[in-house]
Amino acid sequence: MRQIEREVLSRIKPSAQEDRRMTKAVAKLSEAVRAAAAEIGAHIELKLVGSVAKGTHMKDPDIDLFMMFPESTPPEELRDKGLEIGRKVLGGEEHYAQHPYIRGAYDGYQVDLVPCFLVKDPQKKMSAVDRTPFHTEFVADNLERSLHDHVRLLKRFMKGIGCYGAEAKTQGFSGYLCELLVMRFGDFDSVLKAASEWTMGQALALPEYPGIEFSESLTFVDPIDSGRNVASAVSPASMMTFMKAARAYMKKADLRFFYPREQKNWDVERIREEAGERIESFLVVSFEKLDLIDDVLYPQLRKSIVSMTSLLRRNDFEVVRTGMDVHSTVDVLIEVESMELPRERIHKGPPVNSPNSQEFLSKWDAAGLSKPFKEDGRWFVVVERRHRRADGLLRESISSLTLGKDIRKIQSFEIASGKQLLTNRYARLLTEYLDERMPWER
């Protein structure tokens, strides 16, 4: 290992004393869960899963404890009893994967108490939650102990470059995918060397566990289920970031890949200088942040952005790029090629020999800015554009768009554009959008 990697390990690898403390906490937690289950007559088996069970955890890990109910348990009973046990032990708050579960604190650790079905046959169709214990067993049985530190390094690297986690907010590399990558290529260094040569659509599998390719940014066949892609959550942006980071690290290793410098907001004057004339093509839609967990909120935000940009494109505004900042409010930035379009636009009509020609001519003979004219066998007419400004179009139409199901309930959307954005209110959003350096380059 490089000296940098040894230094990173010294920061992230738990000591023997820390592991003993965690082991005691897991034992105490398990005892409390069994007692709570007995109180309500729930028959469960407990399974420690995740990085702690696989030995790839870092300091201050989360504890994932699965409460496994018999397959014959009605789903409603699994849900109700699982949540009741979780609340008795943790208090905590309810989250949702494919089964609802409770997250809370116990003995200084963040704990997820997750009800699932005790599935005996790994070939059986099951939910992602029910499949997790099989993933834990596979990695525990097949990942050599000497590679545990290499997994830790890869996870920290992914965190540093902003690509760690399969949740909806990040759309990156899960811990399980990191473990499989180390198993596939042999160590941390070899994973980065391989990734530096990947292309979009890269297909991977463990040699003994082949499967089909998927039409996603990255394929890694799940050794537990050959019809499942472990890398399905990896977005094109996360894939490109990882490939770029791998190439850069191979050229010059630096601690900033693991621990990047914090992004500091630019002041208004610097934003003005960096944006230049582009600021006139920026518009920001702001609205209240709903009290939703990230895995519910972010898909709705992305759906809403698609709906906004589709509206603009349908009305001839060319969308360059979008950005988003989520804090106490949500700010969505949309950059268009031009905020204002000409008064006139050419409206395409039917083919000259179409039965609809007469209707078109009757409608537009007096209503158009020009008389209808023929070109390449089709009728056209110059008409007045209904919406000339992108910000005005969104302001008028946003409440009627197909937004995320909870976002569409919002009553008030604030829309600002151009030099209105040159205030501290938008500094974080604009800094992140305009600063095109990668995390390790700052």
Write the CATH fold name of the largest domain. Answer: Beta Polymerase, domain 2
Q: Write down the domain tally.
A: 4
Low-confidence stretches: none
**Judging from the principal axes of the Cα atoms, what is the shape?**
globular
Mean pLDDT: 95
What would your notes on this structure say?
This protein is α+β, with helices and mostly antiparallel strands and 442 residues long. It has four domains: 11-142, 2-Layer Sandwich (Beta Polymerase, domain 2), CATH 3.30.460; 145-257, CCA tRNA nucleotidyltransferase, domain 2 (Poly(a)-polymerase, middle domain); 268-340 and 388-441, Alpha-Beta Plaits (2-Layer Sandwich), CATH 3.30.70; 344-384, 2-Layer Sandwich (Alpha-Beta Plaits), CATH 3.30.70. Helix content is 40%, strand content 21%. It has 14 helices and 15 strands. The strands form four sheets. The protein has a five-stranded mixed β-sheet, sandwiched between helices. A four-stranded antiparallel β-sheet has the order 10-11-9-15, with helices on both faces. The protein has a three-stranded mixed β-sheet with strand order 6-7-8, with no helix packed on it. The longest helix has 24 residues, at 16-39. The mean pLDDT is 95.
